[in-house]
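Support reply, case 0932

Customer input (verbatim):
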Amino acid sequence: MTKMAAPTVCVPGQRICRLEETCEGGCGTYSRNGYIYSSLAGYLQTSQSEDGKITNVNPRFCKCMILSVGRIPLKEPFRGQIRKEDVRATEKDKVEMYKCFRPGDIVVARVLSLGDAHSYLLSTAENELGVVMATSEAGAVLEPISWCKMKCPKTLTEEFRKVAKVQSRYVQYAGT
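Our regenerated output:
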């Protein structure tokens, strides 16, 4: 018989852990001063999430790691790239890759085709596609303020991104 670990009980205001790239708060938490705190009384639950991340950006394209397809996590990551001409549907010649994506950004993209060297060609040329989560230079999670800008809640500085329009089917409410 194996011994089960006792569940961790949290109360509102209790510090859970340090806010890092590998940790993010979920329902019933908030972040302040570099830490994640509990906003509800209950048992601590942890889980791992798989998303796609930007790994490299240059003036012609950005490289990505594809870690999930829809809500299905992949057993191993696949390489992908978003070319400059596949970022937006209009004004393709005015796209500046560094103003659209940064390393570490989490994006929603559509697969166009299998590209060179076993990497997939991806597109964000729809309103629903683009950056869904990004971290500011100050280390805070950026908040979208328009289709092309996000704002740091710590420093109130604005950073350019190709922001994805939030789709209601992907919004998850507490208690559901």
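We compared this against your earlier run and they match. Two observations from our side: The first strand starts at residue 9 and ends at 10. The chain has a mean pLDDT of 79. Please reopen the case if you see a mismatch on your end.
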